[in-house]
Amino acid sequence: MLRIAVPNKGSLSGPAAEMLHEAGYQQRRESKELRIVDPENEVEFFYLRPRDIAIYVSSGRLDIGITGRDLLVDSAADAEEILPLGFARSTFRFAAKPGTANGIEDLKGKTVATSYEGIVAQHLADSGIEASVVHLDGAVETAIELGVAEVIADVVETGTSLRNAGLEVFGEPIMKSEAVVIRRTGADGEEPKVQQFLRRLQGVLVARTYVMMDYDCRVEQLEKAVALTPGLESPTVSPLHNEGWVAVRAMVPAKEAQRIMDDLYEIGARAILTTAIHACRL
Ligand SMILES: Nc1ncnc2c1ncn2[C@@H]1O[C@H](COP(=O)(O)OP(=O)(O)OP(=O)(O)O)[C@@H](O)[C@H]1O
Ligand SMILES: O=P(O)(O)OC[C@H]1O[C@H](OP(=O)(O)OP(=O)(O)O)[C@H](O)[C@@H]1O
Ligand SMILES: [Mg+2]
Questions:
Q1: Is 211-276 CATH 3.30.70.120?
Q2: Pocket (CB within 6 angstroms of ligand 1)
Q3: For the chain, how many helices (H) and strands (E)?
Q4: Domain 2-86+178-187's class?
Q5: SS3 of 38, please?
Q6: What's the CATH architecture for 90-177?
Q7: Which residues are close to ligand 3, an ion, with C-beta < 5 A?
Q8: Cα dihedral sign for 166, 171, 174, 175?
Q9: pLDDT tens figures, 49-59
Q10: What is the ipTM of this complex?
Q11: Which residues of the chain register pLDDT less than 50?
């Protein structure tokens, strides 16, 4: 049975459960459940604090886990990323009161408050900057107002939390993060159960980012049309009953679907349809 760590709380837990559900796995019915078995898929899910997931996976007791890239790096656990999942996207940045810092060199001798001490200490060491780091559990944006630190380093998504606290980012982003699947460093990458799990999640990612497009066009327009809808490998082209016409079917990125439909119409394609993909294996 494959043993998988899943976030039990916070920004990662809802989207992770949703993705697993879309991939056909049973998920817990209420938020207090800490462990469930999905016998049909031969998988056991452990609902753990996101911060602890890399530690469990590195111990080898759990085969794989879903966590944030920033949490993985911060933990310094012996685990590695094997698949990015595209949700809980954020950047990790320094911020301070406007006009008090412009770059990392301005951190010299200052105190930085953060929940991600590992990332910050490493980044300061790599940059040759000596500064103190104070660990806070959350709501780090308030630390400056309350005099605990002159600078913070925190997760930024929309920037609303920083704006509300009257703070501004400075310097280069320290890292970009998103939810990722991890495994113990050097674990057997060919393990069939792990491979099957990854294929299912990849299927969800593809189903979320692509739509299926069907249309009819004249044979003379086919090369132009295919250039607009090259598909993943190559589009399916079938003859139509009316001579001189073909039907084309190809996957296209969902975000570009409307523009592609306009462009196809312009070159004479008709009966252009897009449909959602519910699941796939590439
Ligand atoms: N506002 C946000 N937008 C996108 N990702 C976020 C946001 N806040 C946190 N994350 C990501 O979620 C992960 C942190 O999860 P964690 O559950 O520890 O914190 P949280 O979502 O802030 O919840 P909590 O309320 O428990 O602090 C990290 O990978 C982080 O980058
Ligand atoms: O840029 P934004 O869209 O505002 O998102 C970033 C904020 O979201 C998270 O906080 P959360 O609400 O989880 O509280 P926490 O600080 O206690 O973790 C994160 O720690 C930032 O504070
Ligand atoms: Mg938080």
A1: yes
A2: 9-12, 50-51, 68, 70-71, 88, 90, 138, 155, 157, 177
A3: 8, 15
A4: alpha beta
A5: strand
A6: 3-Layer(aba) Sandwich (3.40)
A7: 138
A8: positive
A9: 999 999 999 99
A10: 0.96
A11: none
